[in-house]
Specification:
eight-stranded mixed sheet; 19% strand; globular; repeat; transferase; EC 2.7.8.-; PLD-like_dom
Length: 485
C-alpha cells in the first residue's frame, strides 16, 4: 500500500510539473492557459493524453506548407478592380467603412471589390437548388471546399453531378475536412477520382491521430465556378442542412451567391488551400486564365455591391478576423445584430459588446434553442445570461436549429461567412467571411433578422432567475472550459 501511495504521489508531482511546463512554454491566451492547466491537474495522465491530441499547436510542417503559398491571382484581381463601375450606386457605403477596409487590407491581400452581384439564401432547399443549377451550368472549372461533405442523399446528389461534369471534361477539384466529413470515405470519393476529378483532404486532416493534431479544421465553405460565380456562408453538404435530421428540425442558415470579382478572391483562397494540401501524387494548381478570367462590367449582372473577402486561420500570428470584426462592430452607432450558433466569445469580444451596448447601440444576438454540442451549448447559455445582464438583447431562435453566422451594423455594413462567435473560430479553425458595404444588401440582412425574431424568444432576467441550480452549475463548468471547447 505504501509503495502504491508513493508511486501515485510521484505521478501527481510529475504530472503537475509537466502541466505547468506544457501550458506555459507556448504563447496562448490567459483563459486558454488556465483552462488547460485545470484539465491537466484535475485529470492526471488522462489530461496529458487529451492535451496531446487537442492542445498542441498546429505542426510546423503544416504551417510551412500553408504559409509558403503565394497569391496566384491577386494581381489579376487588382487589375479587375482597378477600374470600378462607371456608376457608383447610392447604396455604396464603402467610403464610410474605410477604417475597416484598411484594417482588413493591411497586408494588401484583401482588396475591396465593387463589381459584384450578390444573392442571399437562408433556406437549404432553395440554396441547394441554385447551387446544383450553377454546377450543372459550369463550363470549365469547379472548385469546392467544405468542412462537411457527407455521404448521404444530398452528398451523393452533389457528388454524382460532379462526376457527370468531370466526365464532360471539366476540371474538378474537391477539398474537404476529414474530421468534419465522417462517413465520407476514400472509396466513396474515389468515384469522382475515377471520372477524372481530383479530391484531397485538407492538410490538417492528414494523419490526424498519428501526428496528434485533431483540433485544427478547415471550416471554410467555398464553391467557385468558372472563376466568376462563387458561394460561401454557413451551409455544408449534408441532409441535416436541408432539415432532414429530426434532431435539428428546420435548419436556418445563411449563404451568399456572388457573381463578380469577389469570386476571384475565393478562387485564390481555394488554390492556396489546395496547394498546401497536395501529396506526392497530386499536382500543384498553377495560374491560368480559366481559373482567373478577366472580368469586366459586361460579365456582371447588374452588380455593384462593394465586397471584401477575408480569411483567417491558426497559421497567422494574430487573431486577424476576430480583431477585424471587432473593429467593424465598433463602428456601430445605432444597431449591431449578430447571429451565431455558438456564443463563446473571448474577453476582448465580450468587452466590446458590453461597451457597444453601454453606448446606446441596439445590440441583439440570436442563438439556437437547442444544442448540437451539449458542453458548448451550456457555455453559450452562460454567456447569454451575462450579456443579458449587460444590456445586450439575446434572442433564442425556436424554429429549428440556427446555424447562421451573420452581422448587421447600422444600415451600412453586413457580413456572412463561416466564422462563429467562439474561441475555435477566433484561433483554431480556418475560416472565411465576406463583408458587404452596401445599404441595399444591409436591408436584406436586417429584414431577414427581423423575420427570424418572429420565431424567437427574448431572454429576460426573470427567465434567467428561474434556471435551476444544476443547470447553472453545468453552465459555469462549461464556461470555465470554454476556451478549449
Amino acid at each position: 500500500m505504501i509503495l502504491l501511495h508513493d508511486i501515485w504521489r510521484i505521478i501527481l508531482i510529475t504530472n503537475t510539473i509537466l502541466a505547468f511546463y506544457i501550458v506555459f512554454h507556448r504563447r496562448r491566451s490567459v483563459s486558454t492557459t488556465w483552462a488547460w492547466l485545470i484539465i491537466l491537474i484535475v485529470l492526471p495522465i488522462l489530461g496529458l493524453i487529451l492535451y496531446a491530441f487537442f492542445g498542441r499547436g498546429i505542426s510546423q510542417e503544416n504551417l510551412f506548407a500553408i504559409n509558403r503559398q503565394k497569391h496566384l491571382g491577386l494581381r489579376n484581381v487588382q487589375k479587375t478592380i482597378a477600374q470600378p463601375p462607371k456608376k457608383t450606386r447610392p447604396s455604396d457605403t464603402s467610403n464610410k467603412g474605410k477604417i475597416a477596409i484598411k484594417f482588413f487590407n493591411k497586408n494588401e491581400d484583401t482588396p475591396l471589390t465593387k463589381n459584384n452581384h450578390v444573392t442571399l439564401f437562408n433556406d437549404g432547399k432553395e440554396m441547394f437548388k441554385a447551387l446544383l443549377r450553377d454546377i450543372q451550368n459550369a463550363k470549365e472549372t469547379i472548385n469546392i471546399e467544405f468542412y462537411t461533405f457527407y455521404n448521404d442523399e444530398i452528398g451523393n446528389k452533389v457528388l454524382n453531378l460532379l462526376i457527370k461534369k468531370a466526365k464532360e471534361g471539366l476540371d474538378i477539384h474537391l477539398l474537404y475536412d476529414a474530421w468534419g466529413s465522417m462517413g465520407a470515405t476514400t472509396s466513396w470519393f474515389n468515384q469522382l477520382r475515377k471520372a477524372g476529378g481530383q479530391v484531397l483532404p485538407f492538410i490538417t486532416s492528414r494523419n490526424m491521430i498519428t501526428r496528434y493534431r485533431i483540433n485544427y479544421h478547415l471550416h471554410r465553405k467555398i464553391v467557385v465556378i468558372d472563376g466568376e460565380i462563387s458561394w460561401t456562408g454557413g451551409f455544408n453538404i449534408g441532409d441535416q442542412y436541408l432539415g432532414k435530421k429530426k434532431k435539428f428540425g428546420y435548419w436556418r442558415d445563411s449563404q451568399v451567391r456572388m457573381v463578380g470579382s469577389s469570386s476571384l478572391l475565393l478562387q485564390e483562397r481555394f488554390v492556396m488551400d489546395w496547394n498546401a494540401s497536395i501529396d506526392k501524387h497530386t499536382k500543384v494548381i498553377t495560374y491560368n486564365e480559366r481559373l482567373f478570367p478577366n472580368l469586366d462590367e459586361t460579365d456582371i449582372d447588374n452588380g455593384d455591391v462593394p465586397t471584401q473577402v477575408i480569411f483567417d486561420g491558426p497559421d497567422r500570428y494574430d487573431s486577424y478576423m476576430r480583431n477585424g470584426m471587432m473593429r467593424l462592430m465598433l463602428l456601430a452607432r445605432k444597431r449591431l445584430w449578430i447571429q451565431t450558433p455558438y456564443l463563446i466569445p473571448d474577453d476582448a469580444m465580450f468587452a466590446a459588446w458590453q461597451t457597444i451596448a453601454s453606448s446606446g447601440v441596439d445590440v441583439r444576438i440570436m442563438i439556437p434553442c437547442k444544442p448540437d454540442h451539449p458542453f458548448i451549448y451550456r457555455a453559450t447559455q452562460w454567456y447569454a445570461n451575462e450579456l443579458t445582464r449587460s444590456g445586450v438583447k439575446i434572442y433564442i431562435y425556436n424554429n429549428g436549429f440556427l446555424h447562421s453566422k451573420t452581422t448587421v451594423i447600422d444600415n451600412l455594413y453586413s457580413t456572412v461567412g463561416s466564422m462563429n462567435q467562439d474561441y475555435r473560430s477566433y484561433s483554431l479553425n480556418f475560416e472565411d467571411n465576406v463583408v458587404f458595404y452596401d445599404k441595399k444588401f444591409n436591408k436584406k440582412m436586417a429584414d431577414s433578422f427581423e423575420e427570424d425574431m418572429k420565431h424567437s424568444t427574448l431572454l429576460t432576467k426573470e427567465m434567467i432567475k428561474k434556471q435551476g441550480s444544476w443547470l447553472r452549475t453545468k453552465q459555469s463548468i462549461s464556461r470555465m472550459l470554454s476556451p478549449i471547447l
